[in-house]
Specification:
Strand order of the largest sheet: 3-2-1-4-5-9-8
CATH architecture of one domain: 3-Layer(aba) Sandwich
Radius of gyration: 19 Å
Largest sheet: 7 strands, mixed
CATH class of one domain: Alpha Beta
Order of helices and strands: HHHHEHEHEEHEEEHEE
Distance between the termini: 23 Å
Shape: globular
CATH topology of one domain: Rossmann fold
Oligomer: single chain
Number of helices: 8
Amino acid sequence: MEDSTITPVPSGKSFYSAASQIGSKDKSAGWYEKTFLGCPIDARKLLETYSGVPADEVDSHILTIRDKAWDIYPYPCIGQFRFLNLTLHNHPSYTAILQLLKGGEAKYLDVGFCLGQDIRKLVADGVPSQNIYGAEIESPFIDLGYELWRDKDTLQAHLMQADALTLENSLRDLQGTIDYVHLGMVLHVFDRPKQILLLENCMRFLNTDKQGAMILGEAVGDVEGLQTSAGYFMHNDLTLRQLCTEISERTGQQLECHVTLDEGMSMPDAERKCGVNRSRRLAFEIRLLRSSQGIS
């Protein structure tokens, strides 16, 4: 049954018609930035200190990697250099998460990690890399991430090609072992039923013996919350909390969901927002409060 509180796409009109162009490698797309405006300070520091890229080579190194990534799959986040955005460390719970991970008391899984920027930030902040896991559906991104961060011979994180919409792969063995699952700019690429499937699968990864295990992440949101004509569902704070309530009722798991919707996507004009001004950054933390019998 359709949830009447969720705003549908108005008849005959698509707010996100440009989304149908995603997948084309045509560099005339509005989200392929021909001018590099510079590396974010935190990512530059990571490239210089963690990866050892000389300061005067950072920009050229990034440009080379960006165009290799564009040839693998031309996501808007690739064209707009958003693989340089370190988002995890901006979450309210990051300090507490970091302390547990640094102490070797917890495990972390990054789903859809792209080039692995948040994974490298965790390692640079002192997390033992052998306690970090990553799942990326586009396997060439894994090797390109090693090239970007120059850590093929040192990183001990368990990075695998896997689709988190199904557990019939190497992710199966992680069920019940993970304390923190990160979904960085992933949720919005699915329709609502697949978002439910993805989040329920992520809940299966969580170690239900530990209070406070959580799923956290970021996505492209919408000021009202709607499904686009291309099939994606863009949430606002209300619609994501509604989704979590539905998942809680389906699974018997008590969840605490904190959501923010703000202008933090740094997209000042409609062209960079794929032709719309409704886009916002959605950040969320979904904490497991109580386990019943687990998710079957």
